[in-house]
């Protein structure tokens, strides 16, 4: 190859151009890896707890990550059969992995809130939406009478956030919520925009409801439930 390259300068340039073309593709393959792992000790512990706490008949299920998990939904909805299926740190892949057990109970309603941890891992919006597609398909197939509510991903309050990887995510949150609203319309689902309750004028999580910039305070949950009631979702 070296002799031919020296004898024919055009061939040498062809080799250089080919390498320059291939290198960016290799670099892209490296950066395109997605961290979709959801299994950890906390996830496994919560799954064991769920196994010991079956979902009641005609239940209202709150499904999501730590923001959902921290809610005392049963206390806020006395007399309503409620199941809290939130797991701290969960992503859309993790919700899909545990969806069968939820749908087997044939719940009356599912209030879904998931996506912020996906965004913090820089999982592409297209992958998140694909997982939502898979989730909706399975709900319709396995429990067609269950009413699914898609709740908007909550904004963050950058000034209170400690981890750098969580900062400046609000534009991505806004973009994802725009897509989720269109997604819900496409599938004839109810989209619940929580931003009128939890976002300030600048689009950040309201300070009075912010625990650490991402999670909401205990005082936020009664307001949340009241909003769902006012909108006739509960």
UniProtKB/TrEMBL annotation:
Signal peptide start-end: 1-29
Protein name: GDSL family lipase
SUPFAM superfamilies linked to this entry: SGNH hydrolase (SSF52266)
Keyword line: Signal
Gene Ontology molecular function terms on file: phosphatidylcholine lysophospholipase activity
Pfam families linked: Lipase_GDSL_2
SGNH hydrolase-type esterase domain: residues covered: 62-221
UniProt organism field: Rufibacter immobilis
